[in-house]
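Re: that chain you flagged

S.,

Sorry for the slow reply, it's been a week of failed gels. I finally had a moment to sit down with the sequence you sent. For the record, here it is as I used it:
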Amino acid sequence: MAILEIVKHPAPILQQKCEEVVKFDKELGQLLDDMYETMVAADGVGLAAPQVGKAVRVAIVDMGEGQDVIEMVNPVVTAIGGSEIEVEGCLSFPGLYGEVERPYFVRVEAQERDGSLYEIEAEDYEARAILHEIDHLNGILFDSKIIRVVDPSEFEEEILDDEEGEVL
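Prediction finished late last night. Pasting the structure tokens below so you have them in one place:
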């Protein structure tokens, strides 16, 4: 496995619609493994193939302790519901954070690394992370959805308040 370089905005690959994966082989498995290593090294929760220079419909989301990494090949959103506004960041936009409105619920059909189909439903933070990565595959960047830019110092204060159990 290898840690890949994360492509930063304004690289053109980040704004193009990615190609569907048609070959489910060792190369795809290697890409997924490398993306995972890269995401972990960058302290991220998700990563899409264009963020590592590959214009293919592949993304991963790691929801943390005790949960499997979600590998999405050729994901298609089949249902959404609700709405919430939360602060997001992106590995391709270091230091930029902003409030983004996204659906609270999502259902996605995707393929595993071996090509088998699966369906996943997610809510809240997990839905947000999945939708953020799928947006990357469609050339949609989170900065185009920012309602309000959040200064990193403000963001850090909110985290500290949360950790102390105070109402925000």
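What I noticed first: The first helix runs from residue 26 to 41.

Talk soon,
D.
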